[in-house]
Amino acid sequence: MSEDAALRLDEQLCFKLYAASRAVIRGYRPMLESLGLTYPQYLAMLVLWEWRDAPPAHPTVKALGERLALDSGTLTPLLKRLEHLGLVQRQRGRPDEREVHLALTEAGAALRDRVGPLRDALMCRAGLERGGLGALREQLDGLLAQLTGSG
Amino acid sequence: MSEDAALRLDEQLCFKLYAASRAVIRGYRPMLESLGLTYPQYLAMLVLWEWRDAPPAHPTVKALGERLALDSGTLTPLLKRLEHLGLVQRQRGRPDEREVHLALTEAGAALRDRVGPLRDALMCRAGLERGGLGALREQLDGLLAQLTGSG
DNA sequence: GTGAATTGAGTTGTGTGCAATTCAATAGCG
DNA sequence: CGCTATTGAATTGCACACAACTCAATTCAC
Predict the structure, then answer these.
(1) Which regions span the lipid bilayer (chains A, B) (predicted)?
(2) Average pLDDT for residues A78-89, to the nearest whole number?
């Protein structure tokens, strides 16, 4: 492949990823608006809902940050907004007071039941519910492993 | 698939896309820092470099926005930064003074020569240069078509 | 035990994304 | 021609991302 061709935008996997990611987020927006959440807030809630069933030893900001690959600079204000919405409780850890432990409120736990139907509608609209999407997931897994492992 | 499983974060294609996209951008960062560009600025430059060879009828903010799926709210300040860096010229269109036409400066055009080697290094590090990534690209194409077509 | 290094959140500053709005310029229509 | 609708940028406001930094709490080395 020539140098010029290699630099063409359409050839750039990076741009496709970036564009596809933003397109998916745009697709989620109407559904999330009806829940009063932004997309990163929704991802944080997904993790907290998972943790309701199998909580880690320390459900802290750090643990959430590792799960989402986001740092405290992003998560602290985001979690304060979720707290302000009455969905999440933040509490200083004991005995380690550096940690902030996260827990769902009743409203936060209840919100999960409203997500399923909306998500199905979106997946259906995006044509994602069946077929070759498993392969895409696996390739993204591989890409992530490459980038976080060797990068 | 059960409802709970469907909501598991790992199953969410949306999260994988989001995480992979950010990981790729993180990977590009050191290379782009040496060029003095952010990632969206780099994408804009890619388009302008392409247009140097085959410019559209109107290389305007609108045309760039359609190429990158970004609106003027994002592009106007971004392009002002590129102008301030001396890489891009912005000029009100004639005869239509609503349009803003974009052109590379000499420095902006010259910057392209510094990208190739750096990009190769990154692609290599990410294991992206050959092999099964074409399939990933195609699947992202399909996903984008689904989301922008029917969404 | 005590001082140095580390760790977990939080803060600050810059640069996106994107909805909503504004505004001037142009196009469309009778 | 005059009037309205549309269009292209720009602006505003909010919420991320993320680097760099601060600070208090804890851990480690000796």
Answers:
(1) none
(2) 98
Closest nucleotide to A40's CA, by C1' atom?
D16
| Average pLDDT rounded to a whole number, residues A35-64 | 96
CB contact (8 A) between residue B9 and residue A47: yes
List the structure tokens of A120. Answer: 């199905």
Q: Which domains does chain B have, with CATH numbers?
A: 3-150 (1.10.10.10)
The pLDDT of residue A119 is above 90: no
User: Are the beta carbons of A36 and A81 closer than 8 angstroms?
Assistant: no
Task: Give the closest residue to A58 by CA, choosing from A83, A84, A95, A85.
Answer: A95
d(CA B109, CA B113): 8
Burial of residue A15 (number of CB atoms within 10 Å: 0-12, 13-18, 19+): buried
pLDDT for residue A151? 39
Closest nucleotide to A37 by C1' from CA: D15
Q: Is A137 on the interface with B (CB under 8 A)?
A: yes
- Residue A57 touches partner B, C-beta closer than 8 Å: no
Residue A13 in this model has a pLDDT that exceeds 90: no
